[in-house]
Amino acid sequence: MEKHVQAQVQHDSIKNPDKYWGDFASLLHWDQPYSKVLTHNAMAPPTDTYHWFKNGKLNTCFNAVDRHVLSGRGKQVAIYYDSPLNNEKRQLTYQELLDQVQTCAGVIASHGLKKGDTVLIYMPMVPEALISMLACARLGVTHSVVFGGFAPLEIQKRINDSKPKLIIGGSCGIEVNKIIPYKEMLDKAIDMSAHKPAHRIIFQRDAGRAVLDPSRGDLDWNDEMQRIRLAGKQFKDYVPVESNHPLYILYTSGTTGLPKGVVRDNGGHATQTLATMKNLFGARPGEVVFCASDVGWVVGHSFICYGPLLLGCSTVLYEGKPVGTPDAGAFFRILEEYKVSTWYTAPTALRAIRRVDPDGNFSAKYDLHHLRGLYLAGERSDTGTIAHFRHIIGGKPVVDNYWSTESGSPITGACQGLENAHGAREEPIAIRHGSAGMPMPGYDVRVLSDPEDDGSGYKFHELGPSQFGNIVLKLPLPPSALTTLWNNSKGFHKSYLDQFPGWFSTGDAGIVDEDGYVHVMSRTDDIMQVAGHRLSTGSVEQILAEHPAISECCVVPLSDKLKGQIPMGLVVLKSGVTQKEEDIVKETVHMVRQNLGAIANYNQTHIIRRLPKTRSGKILRRTIRDIIAGKSLENSKLVVPATIEDATVLNELEDVMNRLGLVGNDGEAGKLDDTVKAKL
Ligand code: COA
Question: What is the mean pLDDT of residues 215-224?
Fold first, then answer.
């Protein structure tokens, strides 16, 4: 059978990466040309075995902003800022953006920061967040954006690991019916942190102004920008950096409570992000992109900030919710008002809209004729949501795509922008419900069996079509993928490369079907997707363990109709605890909100007598999840691990879970499509 064009392009990109990525890299401005697109040195340590664009130097900010001003796009809007939460709209042209970025870079440089230093950005969805990111990139300073929903403990972990010389923050975030005191959270995080950055530049918002304390290094954003303008110290030049110089660190939940600092380079990221804009979205310069994520997530980095700007598009920065700001038509108003052609969001946001507006009455009020496609990521998309919104947007494609902070770009999807040799658009692959599409160019996606010890070491093998197993990527990873973990190359090997030598372990499980469509079904580790946010059970457990009455705890995800997954805590109390159980429960819920953030959606702690454990003391999380999913000793579906310390705990746990009404919840985000289920 003839290969579909997407499969053919993907195949060519793997066979001849130099040609494939070289074509996209040539669209960028390089201050020093690279000597080779992909260099392979088998003798080098795994983090350096593959090197993209060796010896090349470029600047991501120049490519995302200056390049477009120089080519005549100065008057085009670069950022449409729309905040129903702050009742504010602003537009910045490329020329205005350049001016702001040069000024902000001047501010950062004036505090002695230079290439190789780091800046932590903790800001709400305001243009100043993007300006700060681009200003760092201009200087070769590595930024680390922390999602505004994270509370002090999580911020502190990121400060301690990335060791920023400077923090840029907002005074507050604005939620539907409350103001989030960002500056206070930053203060608490810095108090807890061993590393103390010298300065904090705070962007004051009238909705919640912060008290600035110069003795602690607090500075006001506007004063700083004004100081640089008056002194004429804008950073008009830019610093060309090596292709593999880190553009940013973005922390992502690991299986332990400590987040992993994913390192993204400049050259590979710019090249592949540009390629994704063209291939996946079929976007063209001058068009408008609306990505309803948050700039604190990888999707926000790629499709609110860097992707649209690298291509010369206008990006919509939306500070609002899918519902309640003011109604379920909010996203559709944006689509009409800014003539959006590419729309990106998370399935959970669509489910929230559908719940309020099941008949599409709100969306029907708006003209969506500029829209070409809707793209979904952040968690598994469910068939019902996709079908509903395909109808709402007039039959245009709704394209699920699967990726991660680590990959930095979609691993699978249905490309809407592939062109033939004459520049005409090729027909995209058909959307297959339950699947997030076929591998994108650069990704060699396979499914492997679990490694098993055959006496001479751990062995694994590749599984055939529709066989369920571990989803892996064949090395080399494409240019946008992480190069290492910040300050933790050992952790990089351990987390991603050691389990299947020669392959990158995604931590996801699923199948590749007979036609090459990838179906991602579950995680192989303890990561949850809560309302489109990636969180680890470990980070919640770490907080619960701090409660003085708790001796042991375990957090497992439950499936939730709106949010995909939500965490649930099972805790065992220390002997002799006399505190009322209901108070302990309330306190744990409060602690998670205060330390991790309300975004964890943590609202249930259950006190139990004991947890199932191995003889070496490891809590058997999988077994707990199996019991909740309905596997039991009685129906003979529960596999009792050979290493269990005391199997009688299982009956006890089954009883408790039944009593709590939790049995039957499979804990998975999204449901399998029936056609896929039938194949398994
Ligand atoms: N800063 C501070 N707090 C935040 C926050 C932020 N940026 N984002 C969310 N929160 C708070 C919320 O106010 C809420 O607080 P509450 O418990 O006091 O009410 C809590 O965290 C839980 O938030 P969330 O799970 O987002 O629930 P919600 O009811 O506010 O909104 C959705 C539900 C589905 C509308 C929302 O989760 C959503 O739009 N999700 C999509 C996320 C997304 O796009 N992710 C990127 C994937 S690519």
Answer: 97
558 CA to centre of ligand 1 in angstroms: 18
Distance (Å) of CA 147 to CA 125, 163, 534: 10, 17, 11
State if residue 296 touches ligand 1 by the CB under 6 angstroms criterion. no
CB 348 within 8 A of CB 564: yes
- CB of 4 closer than 6 A to ligand 1? no
Q: Is residue 539 part of a domain?
A: yes
Q: Which helix (H) or strand (E) holds 556?
A: strand 550-560
For residue 572, give its domain range. 533-679
For residue 533, which atom of ligand 1 is closest to its CA? 45
Say if residue 100's pLDDT is above 90.
yes
Alpha helices (H) along 248-361: 267-279, 298-300, 307-311, 330-337, 347-356
pLDDT-derived band of residue 539, with 50, 70 and 90 as boundaries? confident
Whether 577 is in a domain gets the answer yes
- The CATH code of the domain that includes 654 is 3.30.300.30
CA separation (Å) from 36 to 18, 25, 39, 45, 364? 7, 11, 6, 19, 51
Ligand 1 atom index nearest CA of 298: 48
Cα-Cα-Cα-Cα torsion 630, 435, 477, 508, nearest 10 degrees, comes to 0
Can you give the pLDDT at residue 392?
97
**Does the CB atom of residue 408 touch ligand 1 within 6 A?**
no
**352 ligand 1 Cβ < 6 A:** yes
Q: pLDDT tens digits for 282-304? A: 999 999 999 999 999 999 999 99
Domain count, the chain: 1
DSSP E strands, 190-322: 199-203, 218-220, 241-242, 246-252, 260-265, 288-291, 314-318
3-state SS, residue 211: coil
Residue 595 within any structural domain of the chain: yes
pLDDT > 70: what percent of the chain? 97
Residue with the smallest CA separation from ligand 1 atom 44 is 293
pLDDT band at 453 (very low <50, low <70, confident <90, very high): confident
Buried b (16+ CB within 10 A) or exposed e, 10-24: beebbeebeebbbeb
34 located within any domain: no
Helices (H), 45-93: 60-61, 67-68
